[in-house]
Design brief:
307 residues, 12 helices
Length: 307
């Protein structure tokens, strides 16, 4: 009897999640999440990307327990040691443990990505939605400003901002955010142009809603799925920009372990002690690939045109 009851419960839960007539908004939201997960789970590459990102988050959260040594401690007697049971990925030219620096560098990478997106995505969403809905001169001015940002390579523009703000991790995040928002503005504007003449927008306007209320309460939420997909795909570019700033000594400052700075340290010995630069470079590649795969999976879920 117990086994039969246990078998019935998942079937009831699945029926509750997939019903076409939900009894409440809460049930409808859970059903939407369940259907989205089923679409996402059919993409094996997206699952691989999700696994990579979860591994990154796990390493960042439990770095003190995963790392085998303090990544900031220097011991010149151990400089440029190859992989060994004591140092799994060898040491750099200052005798610091490469594996521990790699694990703690996941924290820095995740911090840069999350904070840059928290700053850039809302700015781009607001600028693009405002330009697309109001149109006219406002649209021309905002989009020309966006074009100015697009006319410079991201890394070059980030270097200019960091040069003005000064080197450091927080200033690097601000610089990256200032170079990332135009992409979200373009996406939000395109979505807004597709819905601004819809009947429901006209009905809301007829009820006396202001343009600001329509933009923030109705237009921006409709653009949010496309912005989320764009943000996920853009995370790889943010990581590469952050690594470039760290490589040039303008990002995270010593002794903070950061993957771009680790490559900079290892470039002087790359022919003989290749692991010092290759290990953080491989980490950047894998994490960037993970975010791209995850973004492709989310696009299948959030974009109705592809479903």
């Amino acid at each position: 009897m117990s086994n039969a009851t246990d078998a019935v419960r998942p079937a009831r839960l699945r029926a509750w999640l997939t019903t076409d007539t939900p009894d409440s908004g809460w049930q409808a939201n859970w059903g939407r999440l369940y259907r989205g997960w089923r679409v996402f789970a059919r993409n094996p590459l997206a699952l691989i990307g999700l696994g990579i990102i979860l591994l990154l988050v796990f390493c960042a959260a439990f770095a003190p327990w995963i790392a085998t040594a303090d990544p900031t401690v220097q011991d010149l007697t151990l400089r440029l040691q190859p992989a060994s049971p004591e140092h799994w990925l060898g040491t750099d030219r200052m005798g610091r443990d490469t594996f521990s620096a790699l694990i703690y560098g996941a924290r820095v990478t995740l911090y840069i990505v999350c904070l840059a997106l928290i700053i850039a995505a809302p700015i781009g969403l607001l600028v693009g939605s405002t330009a697309g809905y109001i149109g006219g001169r406002t649209d021309r001015v905002l989009m020309r400003i966006t074009d100015i940002f697009f006319s410079f390579p991201r890394l070059v523009l980030a270097l200019a901002f960091v040069a003005a703000l000064g080197p450091g991790l927080d200033n690097a995040v601000i610089a990256i955010a200032l170079t990332a928002w135009p992409a979200y503005a373009r996406v939000a504007r395109a979505e807004t142009l597709a819905v601004r003449r819809s009947d429901f927008i006209a009905a809301i306007k007829a009820q006396g809603a202001s343009s600001w209320r329509i933009i923030t309460r109705h237009v921006m939420p409709l653009s949010l799925p496309s912005v989320i997909v764009r943000a996920t795909l853009d995370m790889a570019g943010i990581i590469l920009t952050a690594a470039g700033l760290g490589f040039l000594g303008l990002g995270a400052q010593p002794p903070t372990p950061e993957w771009g700075a680790m490559i900079s340290v290892g470039r002087q010995n790359i022919l003989d002690q290749w692991w010092v630069a290759a290990v953080p470079g491989l980490a950047i590649f894998i994490v960037s690939l993970g975010f791209n795969l995850l973004g492709d999976g989310l696009r299948d879920v959030l974009d109705p045109k592809t479903s």
